[in-house]
Write a structure and sequence with these properties.
mainly alpha, 0% strand, transmembrane, membrane, 7 helices, 77% helix, transmembrane helix, 205 residues, single chain
Length: 205
C-alpha cells in the first residue's frame, strides 16, 4: 500500500514539473486544421497555375515568373494567418478545459525560441523572393520551420521535435528537386501536420 502511494506521489510530482516547465496545452486538432488549410492553399495554387495555362505536372514550367510568385506569396500569407488563428482557437479551448493559463512565462519562452529561426527564415525567404530565386523558397520555408519546431521543443510536447526533423529532411530533399516546391509544401505543411496532429490528439487530447 505504501509503495503504491509512493508511486502515485512521484507521478503527481512529475506531472506538476511537466506543467511548470512545458507548454502542454498544444492541441492536436490545431495541427490537423493547419494541415487542411495548407492543403487547400496548395490546391488553390494549382488552380492558379491552371488559370495561367501552366500544366504543373509536366515539369517544364515549374520555375515561374515574378508576377505568379507575388500571387503565391500572398496565398502563403493567408494560409499562415488561418493556420495560426485556428491553432490559437483550439489551443485556448484546450487550456480552458484543463484550467491552465495559455499565457505565462513558459508560453513566452516557447514563442521566443520558435520565433528566432522562423523570423530568420522569413527574412531569408523574402531575400530569395527579392532576388527572384523562387524555386528555393519552398525548401527554405520547410527547413527553417522545422528548425523552429526543434528549437521550441524544449518548452512544449517532445513530439514536436520529430515533426521538426521531418520538415527539415523534407526541405533538404526539396533542394534537389527544384520546381516541385508545391508538392513538397503540400506534404510538409499539409499531410505531415495532419498526421502528427492526429497522433498528438490521440495521445494527449
Amino acid at each position: 500500500m505504501e509503495s503504491k502511494n509512493y508511486q502515485e506521489e512521484l507521478a503527481h510530482i512529475r506531472q506538476m514539473m511537466e506543467r511548470s516547465s512545458r507548454f502542454i496545452s498544444l492541441s492536436g486538432l490545431s495541427g490537423v486544421i493547419a494541415g487542411i488549410v495548407a492543403l487547400l492553399g496548395s490546391f488553390y495554387v494549382y488552380f492558379i497555375f491552371q488559370r495561367d495555362g501552366i500544366d504543373y505536372f509536366d515539369g517544364e514550367r515549374n520555375i515561374h515568373s515574378h508576377s505568379i510568385a507575388k500571387e503565391l506569396f500572398f496565398v502563403a500569407l493567408i494560409v499562415l494567418f488561418l493556420a495560426i488563428s485556428s491553432g490559437y482557437i483550439f489551443t485556448a479551448g484546450k487550456s480552458k478545459k484543463k484550467n491552465l493559463k495559455i499565457w505565462d512565462s513558459i508560453t513566452k519562452k516557447l514563442l521566443f525560441n520558435f520565433a528566432i529561426p522562423l523570423v530568420a527564415g522569413g527574412v531569408f525567404c523574402l531575400a530569395l523572393w527579392f532576388h527572384h530565386y523562387f524555386p528555393l523558397i519552398a525548401p527554405s520555408m520547410l527547413i527553417f520551420y522545422g528548425l523552429a519546431l526543434i528549437n521550441a521543443e524544449r518548452y512544449t510536447l517532445s513530439d514536436v521535435k520529430y515533426l521538426g526533423i521531418c520538415e527539415v529532411v523534407l526541405g533538404i530533399i526539396a533542394l534537389f528537386w527544384l520546381g516541385w516546391g508545391l508538392i513538397f509544401w503540400a506534404v510538409g505543411f499539409g499531410f505531415l501536420h495532419i498526421f502528427y496532429g492526429i497522433l498528438m490528439y490521440g495521445k494527449y487530447d
